[in-house]
Specification:
The longest helix has 27 residues, at 269-295. Strands 1-2 form a two-stranded antiparallel sheet. The protein is built from 19 helices and 2 strands. It is globular, with a radius of gyration of 23 Å. By secondary structure, it is mainly alpha-helical. It has helices at 4-11, 19-26, 31-52, 60-85, 93-111, 113-137, 142-165, 171-174, 194-205, 211-222, 227-244, 247-257, 259-264, 269-295, 306-316, 321-341, 343-365, 370-392, 398-416, and strands at 190-191, 225-226. Helix 4 (60-85) packs across helix 15. The protein is 73% helix and 1% strand. The chain has a domain at 57-318.
Length: 436
């Protein structure tokens, strides 16, 4: 027998066995449908831009900022995916990102941005190993261990920042560091496709319906893009092929589906859980390093809850790399709205959300179920409130603008909850020899 037998017992990939699981399988989005949804979203943004006259809603600056905001969130989400596919809940992503930001700031001002990236990966990986030691070796509750890592990381980076960056007379202090931030580091190199970027910029300035919006998206992908962003795209593609197209990935995922069956087939469950959590921490640490490198310094509270939002993108993405990437793009776009667009652009987004809620209501009514009708009615009522809000105001208060990413997180998770299917053994304590 080989580990492929695990796929027959526990389900290779995500093949569900129950009736509810089969229904969930039918609800999976195919790639053509995903592309249609993306095209529909772009069309909606173009229409809203024409109606509201807010050019900031879909220009290249907005999408460039969204791409930068999506990278750390996506890396945290991808880290959570690696952990939970192996059966371990990783609430400690935020703390691992903190370790990554601090390590990047500490090494980066001395040795440059690429050394900062490597240091961030190492710092996050250490956090992942600590989580593995607690949960896999000692059987600590996954949630408790993750929360403890977040608290420990926060205290540790604050202490080390005071000790290494803020010490009076130290080299770091003389170079511009203090107890809340590191000295500055050099810029991370970027790449640009000169002719293509200039041509797309020219098309974007014409404000043509849909065409200029598409040009804005494409220009954001070829103009002053960080190499860490390119690395992130490679990591997403690589994670898919490793986890879904290799025997290593099959064994790792079997640990999150049925570790007892995997053990009976010769899989070293502890080893795979340790490997998954090390990669999980490293990815979160890379996300933290991206934050530090992007602004050239480490700063206290730099992660700003992105580890938790990354965990939300993993759930929204149904524990699949493509879904995590889409979720990170959505949350990154909403985060960029408050940074680039401000209150007026968020005000225009009220119409976008209203249209999406109406579309959701129509989709819910197709089922004909009583619960679906109630959800559809609530969606329509919220859409009406948003339209009235838009009509009676010219901007959105700053306090609500700051809340935008978190409100989006709650809204998206509430809408996506019915189609989710987590790994069967995720969060469950496993001891070697159980069930044999």
């Amino acid at each position: 027998m080989s580990t492929d037998t695990v796929s027959e017992r526990g389900g290779k990939g995500d093949a569900p066995r129950s009736g509810a699981g089969k229904a969930a399988s039918r609800r999976k989005l195919s790639y053509p449908v995903v592309l249609l949804l993306i095209a529909g979203g772009l069309l909606l943004l173009s229409l809203v831009r024409l109606v509201t006259g807010d050019e900031q809603l879909s220009n290249s600056d907005q999408f460039s900022s969204a791409l930068g905001a999506a990278v750390p969130i996506g890396l945290a989400g991808l880290g959570g995916l690696w952990a939970e596919r192996a059966g371990v809940i990783n609430i400690g992503l935020e703390g691992m990102m903190m370790l990554g930001t601090f390590a990047a700031g500490w090494i980066g001002w001395q040795h440059g941005p690429w050394a900062a990236v490597l240091a961030g990966i190492a710092g996050g990986a250490l956090g992942g190993l600590l989580h593995a030691l607690a949960t896999v070796t000692f059987g600590v509750d996954h949630i408790v261990s993750g929360v403890a890592i977040n608290i420990l990381a926060l205290g540790l980076v604050r202490y080390l920042a005071k000790l290494w960056f803020g010490a009076e007379g130290s080299a770091a202090a003389q170079a511009g560091g203090n107890d809340k931030q590191s000295p500055p580091m050099d810029d991370m190199p970027t790449f640009t496709v000169p002719g293509l970027a200039d041509g797309l910029g020219s098309i974007e300035k014409h404000d043509w319906f849909l065409v200029s919006d598409l040009a804005g998206i494409l220009r954001a992908l070829v103009h002053e893009v960080s190499w860490v962003t390119v690395l992130t795209a490679v990591l997403f593609a690589g994670s898919f092929f490793v986890l879904w197209r290799s025997s290593f990935g099959l064994r790792l995922r079997s640990c999150g589906e049925n570790p007892t069956a995997a053990e009976s087939l010769g899989v070293n469950v502890y080893k795979y859980k340790y490997a998954a959590l090390t990669v999980s921490g490293a990815l979160a640490g890379l996300g933290g390093a991206f934050l530090a490198v992007g602004v050239h310094i480490y700063q206290e509270n730099q992660t700003g809850g992105r580890g938790y939002i990354g965990l939300a993108t993993m759930i929204f993405g149904n524990w699949r790399p493509g879904g995590v990437a889409m979720g990170a793009g959505l949350f990154g776009f909403m985060d960029a709205l408050r940074v680039v667009g401000g209150g007026t652009t968020v005000h225009a987004m009220l119409l976008v959300v209203a249209v999406l809620l109406v579309a959701l209501a129509v989709w819910k009514l197709r089922g004909g179920l009583r619960g679906a009708r109630i959800q559809a009615a609530v969606s329509v009522m919220i859409a009406v409130v948003l339209v009235i809000w838009y009509a009676l105001t010219d901007t959105v208060a700053l306090e609500f603008v700051e809340m935008t990413p978190y409100v989006t997180t709650l809204l998206v998770l509430s809408l996506a909850a019915q189609r989710l299917r987590a790994p069967r053994a995720v969060g469950k304590s496993y001891r070697r020899g159980e069930g044999t």
